[in-house]
Amino acid sequence: MAISVHNPDQYMASLRQIIAQGRKRLGLLVGAGAPAGITAPGSSGPLIPAVAGLTEKVLKILEASHGPTLELVQKDLVSPNIETILTHVRGLSGVIGTTKVHGLDGAGFKNLSELICSEIGKIVSAELPAGVSPYSELTSWISGTDREHAIEIFTTNYDLLFEQALERGRTPYFDGFSGSRQPFFDPASVANSDQLPSRWARVWKLHGSLGWEANSDGDVIRTGSSKAAHLVYPEHLKYAQTQKAPYAALFDRLRRFLMTEDTLLITTGFSFADAHVSALLDECLSANPSSTVFAFQFKPLADEKFASEIAGRRANMSVYSPDMAMINGISAKWLPGDPPTRDWSAIRATYWSADPSAGGNRFSLGRFDQLCKFFASSKSNQVLAPIVPSVAGTTAAPA
């Protein structure tokens, strides 16, 4: 009896060719797991914590002043985290007026939302360490090839690490803002950004960013500071306000990217627990079979339920986890095959490494730092032998 397995060499050889050639339309979706995988200088902790860690830190800081209120707010939510808490707090601030809920009136909740944003800003304003980092390696890959299409970076993170890396690497980029004194967000330029030079990267901050503020007219501007006042998809805002804000234009840009023929979106550090983004990906993958998503996940496949749910019904999405992969809707363990070339061992080491805890090897590109090294190393002149995919992307192995 035969069982299905996935050969990592087959898929990574193909991906390596794609990211090295500069011809395909490529995008990256980067979540909170990216900076969380980088150790802060002089510390054993992450450079910036992921959502769970960020939630814990902010709640601990505000416990003395607003502990009871925040406990009650969390009980109102099915899956409380700092983003859903902030959205709920903002919603209450806009509707209850002078009535008190959980000990605060509307003005009190408005003040609480500002405190939450302020603490988020302090935590995520970490500077990118000097020297080589995953962000600098990714920047090197972006700027190291003549491209037919610009690299588009979509991120739910608030930090400025991509901006710092691109600027240190003298790599031009566009983020939807125009101007110099108080750059303003221009939705029309976002929609038509394909007209900009392809050597300019695009950085789309789906949930807002440090340094975004509303000016006296209510328009969002980029200040260049580390203040955090305009964060998280504004569920509580009225339709007109939502359309005026950057969020609608940025989500439309992600939709436009995925609906373009023959595109590849690579996700890293993203858990797919964000319902807004995941629903959009699912919808676009269904509507446009020529678009593809490769999801590089940190946890074992069994623990990546949100990504697996989409990949289970969309054959144009693949999930790559350390122990297994879901490709073409088929879940199977990894099993390397014959090397594509004689000197393939050095390249295999970039995505296949020893796992002492499991007593064997594992697929390692679920880690943001390893994925960035893989991208940076794709610029080598290694010539690959043609690889013929097997039926349904699997290889038969004896049971």
Q: How is this structure best described in words?
A:
There is one protein chain. This protein is an alpha/beta fold. It folds into two domains: 303 residues, no CATH class; 74 residues. The protein is built from 14 helices and 17 strands. An eleven-stranded mixed sheet has the order 4-7-3-2-10-11-12-13-14-1-17, sandwiched between helices. Helix 3 crosses helix 4 and helix 3 runs antiparallel to helix 5.
List the helices and strands and how they pair.
Elements: E1 2-6, H1 8-21, E2 25-30, H2 33-36, H3 51-75, H4 82-95, H5 106-124, H6 134-143, E3 152-155, H7 161-168, E4 173-174, E5 177-178, E6 184-185, H8 187-191, E7 201-205, E8 212-214, E9 220-222, H9 239-244, H10 246-259, E10 263-268, H11 275-287, E11 292-296, H12 305-313, E12 317-320, E13 324-327, E14 330-334, H13 345-348, E15 352-355, E16 360-363, H14 368-377, E17 395-398
Parallel strand pairs: 1-14, 2-3, 2-10, 3-7, 4-7, 10-11, 11-12
Antiparallel strand pairs: 1-17, 5-6, 8-9, 12-13, 13-14, 15-16
Helix pairs in contact: 3-4, 3-5, 4-5, 6-14, 10-11
Major sheet: arrangement of strands:
4-7-3-2-10-11-12-13-14-1-17
User: How many strand units?
Assistant: 17
The N- and C-terminal alpha carbons lie at a distance of: 6 Å
Q: Can you tell me the number of structural domains?
A: 2
Tally of separate helices: 14
Global mean pLDDT: 89
Provide the β-strand percentage band.
Answer: 15-25%
Query: Over all CA atoms, what is the radius of gyration?
Result: 22 Å
Share of helical residues: 25-40%
Uncertain runs: 382-399
Helix-and-strand structural type: alpha/beta
Largest sheet: 11 strands, mixed
Basic shape: globular
